[in-house]
Design brief:
mainly alpha, two-stranded antiparallel ribbon, globular, 6 helices
Protein backbone atom coordinates (compact mmCIF):
# COMPACT_ATOMS: atom_id res chain seq x y z
CA UNK A 1 0.00 0.00 0.00
CA UNK A 2 2.78 2.46 0.91
CA UNK A 3 4.62 1.50 -2.30
CA UNK A 4 1.53 2.24 -4.34
CA UNK A 5 1.16 5.64 -2.67
CA UNK A 6 4.76 6.62 -3.36
CA UNK A 7 4.41 5.39 -6.97
CA UNK A 8 1.30 7.57 -7.41
CA UNK A 9 3.00 10.59 -5.81
CA UNK A 10 6.08 10.19 -8.01
CA UNK A 11 3.90 9.72 -11.11
CA UNK A 12 2.04 12.90 -10.22
CA UNK A 13 5.28 14.84 -9.78
CA UNK A 14 6.54 13.56 -13.14
CA UNK A 15 3.23 14.49 -14.80
CA UNK A 16 3.37 17.97 -13.22
CA UNK A 17 6.91 18.46 -14.54
CA UNK A 18 8.49 18.74 -11.08
CA UNK A 19 10.56 15.57 -11.64
CA UNK A 20 11.49 13.36 -14.56
CA UNK A 21 11.75 9.57 -14.56
CA UNK A 22 15.02 7.88 -15.53
CA UNK A 23 15.39 4.10 -15.66
CA UNK A 24 18.67 2.29 -16.23
CA UNK A 25 20.76 -0.59 -14.91
CA UNK A 26 23.60 -0.46 -12.40
CA UNK A 27 26.57 -2.54 -13.52
CA UNK A 28 24.35 -3.71 -16.35
CA UNK A 29 22.48 -5.97 -13.93
CA UNK A 30 20.39 -4.17 -11.34
CA UNK A 31 17.41 -2.11 -12.48
CA UNK A 32 17.29 1.41 -11.08
CA UNK A 33 14.73 4.18 -11.38
CA UNK A 34 15.62 7.72 -10.38
CA UNK A 35 13.55 10.89 -10.31
CA UNK A 36 15.84 13.91 -10.83
CA UNK A 37 14.73 17.44 -11.44
CA UNK A 38 13.91 18.19 -15.08
CA UNK A 39 16.47 21.02 -14.99
CA UNK A 40 19.21 18.76 -13.65
CA UNK A 41 19.50 20.76 -10.43
CA UNK A 42 17.65 20.63 -7.16
CA UNK A 43 13.94 21.50 -7.54
CA UNK A 44 13.20 25.13 -6.68
CA UNK A 45 10.75 24.30 -3.85
CA UNK A 46 13.38 22.07 -2.18
CA UNK A 47 16.06 24.73 -2.53
CA UNK A 48 13.75 27.33 -1.01
CA UNK A 49 12.75 25.04 1.87
CA UNK A 50 16.41 24.31 2.64
CA UNK A 51 17.21 28.02 2.56
CA UNK A 52 14.36 28.84 4.96
CA UNK A 53 15.32 26.06 7.38
CA UNK A 54 19.00 27.07 7.33
CA UNK A 55 18.09 30.71 7.96
CA UNK A 56 15.85 29.67 10.87
CA UNK A 57 18.60 27.62 12.49
CA UNK A 58 21.32 30.29 12.21
CA UNK A 59 19.05 33.09 13.45
CA UNK A 60 17.62 33.68 16.90
CA UNK A 61 14.27 35.13 15.93
CA UNK A 62 10.84 33.61 15.54
CA UNK A 63 10.20 31.08 12.79
CA UNK A 64 7.13 31.03 10.57
CA UNK A 65 4.76 28.08 11.10
CA UNK A 66 5.54 26.49 7.73
CA UNK A 67 9.30 26.45 8.32
CA UNK A 68 8.77 25.34 11.93
CA UNK A 69 6.71 22.38 10.72
CA UNK A 70 9.43 21.37 8.24
CA UNK A 71 12.05 21.62 10.96
CA UNK A 72 9.90 19.61 13.37
CA UNK A 73 9.40 16.91 10.76
CA UNK A 74 13.09 16.77 9.87
CA UNK A 75 14.00 16.55 13.56
CA UNK A 76 11.41 13.83 14.19
CA UNK A 77 12.87 11.56 11.52
CA UNK A 78 16.52 12.38 12.25
CA UNK A 79 17.24 14.39 9.09
CA UNK A 80 18.51 17.39 11.00
CA UNK A 81 22.05 15.96 11.05
CA UNK A 82 22.01 15.66 7.24
CA UNK A 83 20.37 19.02 6.61
CA UNK A 84 22.82 21.08 8.66
CA UNK A 85 26.20 19.29 8.42
CA UNK A 86 28.13 22.56 8.10
CA UNK A 87 26.74 24.04 11.34
CA UNK A 88 27.99 23.30 14.87
CA UNK A 89 26.05 20.30 16.22
CA UNK A 90 25.47 21.90 19.61
CA UNK A 91 24.02 25.02 18.01
CA UNK A 92 21.75 22.99 15.72
CA UNK A 93 20.52 20.80 18.56
CA UNK A 94 19.79 23.78 20.82
CA UNK A 95 18.09 25.82 18.10
CA UNK A 96 15.94 22.92 16.90
CA UNK A 97 14.85 22.26 20.49
CA UNK A 98 13.98 25.95 20.82
CA UNK A 99 12.03 26.03 17.55
CA UNK A 100 10.06 22.88 18.32
CA UNK A 101 9.56 23.48 22.07
CA UNK A 102 5.91 23.61 22.85
CA UNK A 103 5.12 22.98 19.20
CA UNK A 104 2.18 20.58 19.07
CA UNK A 105 3.03 19.76 15.45
CA UNK A 106 6.42 18.28 16.29
CA UNK A 107 4.95 16.04 19.00
CA UNK A 108 2.10 15.01 16.71
CA UNK A 109 4.51 14.33 13.86
CA UNK A 110 6.79 12.25 16.07
CA UNK A 111 3.81 10.31 17.45
CA UNK A 112 2.43 9.64 13.95
CA UNK A 113 5.80 8.39 12.72
CA UNK A 114 6.22 6.14 15.77
CA UNK A 115 2.70 4.74 15.32
CA UNK A 116 3.32 4.08 11.63
CA UNK A 117 6.60 2.33 12.39
CA UNK A 118 4.87 0.21 15.05
CA UNK A 119 2.07 -0.73 12.64
CA UNK A 120 4.55 -1.75 9.94
CA UNK A 121 6.55 -3.81 12.44
CA UNK A 122 3.35 -5.51 13.63
CA UNK A 123 2.30 -6.30 10.05
CA UNK A 124 5.72 -7.76 9.22
CA UNK A 125 5.80 -9.83 12.40
CA UNK A 126 2.30 -11.15 11.75
CA UNK A 127 3.19 -12.03 8.17
CA UNK A 128 6.30 -13.90 9.32
CA UNK A 129 4.33 -15.81 11.97
CA UNK A 130 1.55 -16.72 9.52
CA UNK A 131 4.07 -17.75 6.84
CA UNK A 132 6.11 -19.80 9.32
CA UNK A 133 2.99 -21.51 10.74
CA UNK A 134 1.77 -22.38 7.24
CA UNK A 135 4.97 -24.21 6.31
Amino acid sequence: MAGQLSDRVLAGLVEAGVLRRESDRVLGLFPRTRYPSPTGGEPVPETEARRRMHAAVVSDGPVDARTGALIALSRSVGLDRKLFPDLPKDRVKARLAEITAGDWASAATRKAIEETQAAVLTAITTAVIVTTAAT
